[in-house]
Design a protein that fits this description.
The protein has a single domain, classed as Growth Hormone, Chain: A. The chain is globular, with a radius of gyration of 21 Å. The protein is mostly helical. It contains ten helices and no strands. The C terminus is likely disordered. Helix 3 packs antiparallel against helix 7.
Length: 287
Amino acid sequence: MLEPGFIVSGLLTGLREGVEAALIVAIVLAYLVRTGNARYVGRILLGVGAAVALSVISGIAIFVTVGELQEPYEQVFEALTMLLAAAVVTWMLFWMRRQAASARGELQARMDRALSEGSVWALIALAFSAVIREGIETALFLVGQATSADTGAVSVLVGALIGLLGAAVLGYGFYRGARLIDLRIFFRWTGIALIFIAAGLVSRAVHELVEIGVIGIGSGTAFDVSAILPHGEGVGQFLRAVLGYTSQPEWATLVSWAGYVAVVLWLYLRPMPPRPSRSAEAPRPAG
């Protein structure tokens, strides 16, 4: 018999862990469609499917063998995967910025030529890494909940599936909305959204490393707004899932988040240097 409490627990886990990956995949898909490269959408979905399948296999393997990772290995694993995902997201947003700047007024035609096979595989890797990171983290959380729930393990799984489905619906809604807005606005605001998503990944990675003592400086609490906006429920929980929000950040976590946002946002929003014209690049004839 399904137990409502464990269903809600699994639902929140699935929704929390799935929203971020769904948004990143939605940005990649909308980017390809808006730039006339819809033929590559199938490859992105193939990468997403492979990541989902690997996550399910990993979850089953963890449940059957070790149950869940123990400290400090769980924190190290989460920190490394979040830093890797942040690096890939950062690469993607600057790659998108360069392509958008070079396209100028003929964006679709030029993007069609600019999107090389190597770039396509890089976007597939981005979608795969976003989903596999969240998928394995979700598997770890769910295995922990299922092993502690005993008879409520099935309820946890059902709730998680509902939460993941909700995250997919949110991602699809973002994808549909992104296709309707102006292309330049799409490039700018999706890039800014990716910056804050990546900043959340960096700050959460730093938090995991502070938690196990790898980072000893700045481990004190910077402020506490848990009475106003706790990160464990409601809006705060959603912001934690997408942006890495916490109501009780350590100084190291806060500085890493603010530093990443300040530096990367400045680099992203500053004007692109003008490219030399073809006539300037061409060598002059001798004599």
